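Usage

Read records sequentially. Each one opens with the input sequence:
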Amino acid sequence: MDLNHEFIVNVPIAKAWTILTNLELIAPCLPGAELTEVRGDNYYGIVKVKVGPIVAKFEGRAEFLERNEVERRAVLKGEGLDKSGKGKTSAIITAQLETVSDTSSRCKVHTDLAISGKLEQFGRGALEHVSDKLLAKFVDNLNQLIAKS
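and closes with the structure output:
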């Protein structure tokens, strides 16, 4: 399933790049996410998500497949397994930064998401809705983090 989003951060593109490629810094901005360990280029953690009446807690890892600072493009691969048997997920997330002004940047995000198990039954509409809500909260949290720095 392909999901497309974009958002604005109120910092110049160079600072946006530094922030958005620092998973240890931004992981707490994603509702339900907890980074538990970093080993080299591998990031381990938990993401808890609710879709309809089902709550899944995915344990997994993520790694950058690409970090192109010149083009301001990053590609992250993540995969997780719900230990309670509700399913598994994997995603390739591509983020592309663009300058909006001297003080703000746009981030375009394309996610190629695969979900199997009980969450799969909810279909594209429900999963898009949850994805939209999670990203909106992430952006709010991220902009609060930026404002404090």
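Summary fields computed downstream for this record:
- The mean pLDDT is 92.
- The longest strand covers residues 54-68.
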